[in-house]
Amino acid sequence: MYVTRPHALTAAGAADLRDRTEVIDALYRFGLGQDLKDRALLASAFAPDAVLDFRPAASAWGAEPPPMTGRDTIVDTILGGFEGRVLTTHQVTNPRVELDGDTARLTALVEAQHLLTADRSVHALLKNLYDVDLVRAGEGPGWVMRRVVIDNVWLTGDPAAIFT
Fold first, then answer.
1. Range of the domain at 62
2. Number of structural domains, the chain?
3. CATH of the domain at 40
4. Angle at CA 71, nearest 5°, toward 124 and 23?
5. Do the Cβ atoms of 108 and 94 come closer than 8 Å?
6. Residue 45 DSSP symbol
C-alpha cells in the first residue's frame, strides 16, 4: 500500500535518482496543473488509462464520488468542477519512491487548499495521503501516474461547499 522502506536508495544508489525525481515530478505536475488550471500540464501527469480514486478522502465529509477513469476524464472532471468557482494551491511533502524497472510506487502527503472565488471565506484545507502507481512514459515526461488513491488525514473548513 504505502512506501515505508527504511532507506531512500536501493543498491543501485545514485543511478536511480533521475527516475525518483521524475516519479515525484508526476505528482508535482498534478498539483500545479490544477493550481494553474493548465490542462496540458495536468494531463501530462497521467497515463491514458489512469484511475484516480478520491473516495477515501471524500468519505471524511460523507461524499461518495465515483473513481475517475482515463486521463481525459480525470482532467475534465477536476478542471470542470473547479472552473470559475474554486482556486486551489497544492503542496507536496514527504515523497517516498520504490522503483521496479518500468513501474514505480509513490507515497506522499499533499496539502490542498480550496477557496470559493465568489466568497474566499468559504474554504476547505485538506491534508491527504497519496498512494500512487506509476509507469515509465514512452514519450514526454519520464513517468506518469496510472493509479492514484487519495485518503484524507485531516481537514478544516467546508469541503461540501467546494466539492459540489
1. 14-162
2. 1
3. 3.10.450.50
4. 80
5. yes
6. T
Residue 74 forms part of a structural domain: yes
d(CA 151, CA 136) in angstroms, rounded, equals 24
CA distances from 102 to 23, 63, 138 (A): 11, 35, 10
With cell 484511475, the residue in question is 51
Per-residue pLDDT tens for 93-150? Answer: 999 999 999 999 999 999 999 999 999 999 999 999 999 999 999 766 689 999 999 9
pLDDT of res. 59: 97
Q: Is position 5 within any domain?
A: no
The answer to whether residue 137 is domain-embedded is: yes
Q: Are 142 and 110 in contact (CB under 8 A)?
A: no
In this prediction the pTM is 0.91
Within-domain flag for 25: yes
C-alpha cell read off for 21: 525525481
